[in-house]
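Database export, one record per block. Field names are fixed; values are copied verbatim from the stored entry.
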Amino acid sequence: MNLPLLPRLTEVAALFLKLGTIGFGGPAAHIAMMHDEAVRRRGWLTDQEFLDLVGATNLIPGPNSTEMAIHLGFRRAGWPGLLAGGLCFILPASLIVTALAWVYVWFGSTPQAGWLLYGVKPIIIAIIIRALWTLGRKTVTGPLVAAVGLAVLILSFLGVNEIALLFAGGLAVMVGENFQRWRKPAVGLWLAPPLIGTTTGSAAAATAVLFGLPLFALTLLKIGAVLYGSGYVLLAFLRADFVVRLGWLTDHQLLDAVAVGQVTPGPLLTTATFIGYLLGGFPGAGLATAAIFFPSFAFVALTNRLIPRLRTSTWIGGALDGVNAASLGLMAAVTWQLGRVSLTDPLTAVIALASLGLLVRFKLNPTWLIAGGAAIGLLRAIF
């Protein structure tokens, strides 16, 4: 049933406020939760449409999970939903990070949250594994797509650049699936993505530049517009600009900011919110959040309507299939790496296995599992 706009917009806002509040575990976990809520529980779109959006977010700069929230909001409630999905996903994390930054400035340290992550991390691993299995069955449509996903997984472990793997995966499947139709060079559609690189500066700035909100906002706007790869690439960008070039932060402050971004729910880019408060108080926190996330809204607004049209092209459809397979290969590599640091003892292994069983057998809402994991962590910290 096609609901009026206001109920759909309310639904979008409520969903992403919830996901922004419980969304621990990074982009892979966020996307897994979005798949569970938007595809399996609410039926807003199909698995294939969801995968196409995942592939599209991997090909544009910015935080993947935030861009997925923006895409899904648009799909459900149009342009108002685009804004509501992104803003409601970002808002809880930015408020939590701002509060922690206030504590940090006044007391010189951040509160410890190890007990919370102890119980939540294994559940996040289970959620990602279930999403990988569900999406993988839709993505792997033949031997070529399966081979691309496996190759990306292996090459990712060997340290090959993520963006190069995404483009290579898309190109391999595009050419492979359309080889028999390929008659003339003019018929083919070649993709020649530019090589994207960053420099971190060869030397520290001789003198610190005087802090100013306009320069601060422009710097974060630039980072948000060119940030490819995992959220952890953000550390390199922030250090190059705010530690080395401008001299506004120390390495210790930067690492504290990234640590806060890791232990709070929602997108890791709210690390910029923490830095904004350190440098410019509440105005700085708000401006930092707006500046680093604005490019994501712009990129999604420009590309969202193009994705269904691109799927109808056999060449671009093949490229999307390859990018989707490469995305899942990268997601699997991240899951393995996260699992190694999350499953640290027999109890965490039992939590992960039990959570996976509950998700598969009873289709339990992940929100309850995350709450239970946090309770387990609290009980362990107490006793």
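Remark 1: Confidence is low (pLDDT under 50) at residues 184-206.
Remark 2: The radius of gyration is 21 Å.
End of record.
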